[in-house]
Amino acid sequence: MSASESKTELRLGLAGLGTVGSGVVKMIQDTQDLLQERTGSVISVVAATARDKKKDRGFSMDGMTWHESAVDVATDPNVNVFVELIGGSDGPALDSVRAALMNGKHVVTANKALIALHGSEFAQLADDHNVALNYEASVAGGIPIIKSLREGLVINQVKRIFGILNGTCNYILSVMEETGRAFDDVLKDAQDLGYAEADPSFDIGGIDAAHKLAILTSLAYGCEVDFDSIYIEGIETISAHDIAMAKELGYRIKLLGIAEKSDAGISQRVHPCFVKLDRPIANVSDVTNAVVVDTDYLGRLVLEGPGAGQFPTASAVIADIADIARGVTQPVFMKPARDLKPGAAIAMDQHVGEYYIRLTARDKPGVMAEITQDLADEGVSIETIIQRGAEGVENVPIILVTHKCQESVMNRALQRIAAHDAIVRPPRMIRIEDV
Amino acid sequence: MSASESKTELRLGLAGLGTVGSGVVKMIQDTQDLLQERTGSVISVVAATARDKKKDRGFSMDGMTWHESAVDVATDPNVNVFVELIGGSDGPALDSVRAALMNGKHVVTANKALIALHGSEFAQLADDHNVALNYEASVAGGIPIIKSLREGLVINQVKRIFGILNGTCNYILSVMEETGRAFDDVLKDAQDLGYAEADPSFDIGGIDAAHKLAILTSLAYGCEVDFDSIYIEGIETISAHDIAMAKELGYRIKLLGIAEKSDAGISQRVHPCFVKLDRPIANVSDVTNAVVVDTDYLGRLVLEGPGAGQFPTASAVIADIADIARGVTQPVFMKPARDLKPGAAIAMDQHVGEYYIRLTARDKPGVMAEITQDLADEGVSIETIIQRGAEGVENVPIILVTHKCQESVMNRALQRIAAHDAIVRPPRMIRIEDV
């Protein structure tokens, strides 16, 4: 497709007509005039595939060639922009995106798993064939964070980027705080409401947030996508008690994805965090996503909006398509793929921070002395201890907040503490994050 | 400049080397390699002008041709992108931007007053000469709100756009709340700290915020820039007492710029607002800016960041330059200038909302009866009344919060109330905004 042709006609091939795919087709059909006015191009869906051809999706399929496979859509000679909305990091999604790029077609995708695992390969293919690979919808749904990083902050060096990248987790944590209910109970509700999948493990286990973080990291630091180096912890073990204690201590628990660069390398991690109540990110509730970028020149930029949903996600897909209509083809991760460096990952045990520790101990003399001695021996200094015994209760929770220490040291101290007879459950540790 | 030439060399002509202009030159000089890597272009400042040639600005002027006037820079044949950082809506800023566009040069500017007053004319000139006019830095400093609207939300229809668009006002209101100090006192501090100008009237009077709002409105609604239709009220009359009362009632006072579209037309207004404490915008403090966009497809997007300052603003200027380097030339206000419609302004007295009213009355029998009768006669219904008499004090404040009513009705009621002998000062009214 030449530059001048791109100004006049985009012929989209769509693979996947689920929630987002259907949203994209509806938006394109419903906003034809506006789309043409604002992009200067005629944009239409000329080919499609999905699991079930006959399903009524509420829009006309006139003018679309139906294909039996995503690869067939990607290689349809009539298609000049391939839009992948199947999902998953392998199978037809992988095969079709690869085929489209190798056939010199621009690609738009909302597939975070795919970019997180194959982004570096795709970046090279896109460069080789001089086509765009746009993936705005893959991170934080409708929020234009990819565009903001690639273009708005073009000349900034990112010090740290972090955010609430999974709406399901944020919803569950918000409801747990509001109602005092237990995790399992709220998860079930979230499933009934359609905020969590039948198999929720990707969401609550932090994998989904990690996919998104891997993409942001690569973009922020010009490195190869390095999903495997991400330290991942989900929210499954957060208790109503932790949430109540957080509040009492002036914090709120959020599942954050955090990427940070230091002289030693790049750390990427997804885990529950204690964040101070007065920080913007602490006040982002329910399914809303937020991304915070700290840079050298700009300082701090915060973007907040819907992280999922049919039309917010479709809106981002269409913005990506509109960029192609405007003739914008830029390096996938902000620099030529051949210049992308390996990530230089920092291991989690080198992390330095404050920690919240919840212990469950038998209520007998000497327990506190043992615990505090272990911490002292490892050089961990304590900021706060809360123990509230209750008449006739055998086991009591002990809450500790530490000053800054290295995670390897913290882990050693926790191993010693866990070994005491009086400690009846594995210690629970949540990192306190200075955001 | 042809498309292929634009990929290789941008020769900038800079008019204005004050805080922002110097920041732009320093950033370009300090990030040459990164800038080239990320834009694929060689970008350099080849010509400049400023009030004082000899002043030491902390960077080398080697390779720059010095001109005596901004128009000379704009028309220098060696310049292909003109960067206007002089400021002001007339004089050299106006003349030079006009000259640059008419000479077929791309223009980047941080000048909100200029775009607010001459944006429609410039949009036509840019279209006629097929050049870009980028102005990201003119609204909310480093926040990529223009890019988000023009590109990220390309196919969304904006229902309402509003924000904290003036850092000086937000700083003053934040400090007044924290300290309980009076407006004049805090303003003086802000001037000493460099957060407010020696003549602060543009900031505290709401004019600066209105310039920015005019630009956002035009972009959001595809209409001609219509600064003159904006209703503007500043923060000069906000008292420490109002701020304390707001808190007591569950609100915070913010100076907001708000543009909203209804069947009747477009309303644009800048004035202090009561906003509920739990809304994101209520928690944006000090000099930080924030913009909230409510749209049909995406829903709500919030952007928050530094609204001013040398490098945040320069960062936005350079993002605009990088877009030109990538060959992006799009309509200034998202559609061809010839298609921009007049704004169809809605007058302020048609506004419907809740109101906070502060009265100062002689503490004598019957006052409350008179006031409430006036309100009843005009059909204004009261949600809250607070009157706290104090022993031996002659005049007492009376605080009223109304239910929703039309502003013309509210004004009539206030005129009647003001006419009573017992009312010793003009009533103070602040709008309650449901954001």
What share of residues of chain A is helical?
A: 25-40%
The CATH C-level class name of the largest domain in chain A: Alpha Beta
Low-confidence stretches of chain A: 1-6
Q: Mean pLDDT of chain A, nearest integer?
A: 94
Number of strands of chain A: 17
Q: Say which CATH homologous superfamily of the largest domain in chain A is assigned.
A: Dihydrodipicolinate Reductase, domain 2
Question: Architecture of the largest domain in chain A, according to CATH?
Answer: 2-Layer Sandwich
Give the N-terminus to C-terminus distance of chain A in angstroms: 45 Å
From the spread of the alpha carbons, the general shape of chain A counts as elongated
Identify the most extensive interface between protein chains: A-B, 56 and 55 residues
SS content category of chain A = alpha/beta
What's the gyration radius of chain A in Å?
24 Å
| Oligomerization | homodimer
Q: What percentage of amino acids of chain A are in beta strands?
A: 15-25%
The CATH topology of the largest domain in chain A, please?
Answer: Dihydrodipicolinate Reductase, domain 2
> How large is the count of helical segments of chain A?
15
Count of structural domains of chain A: 3
- Main sheet record of chain A: 11 strands, mixed
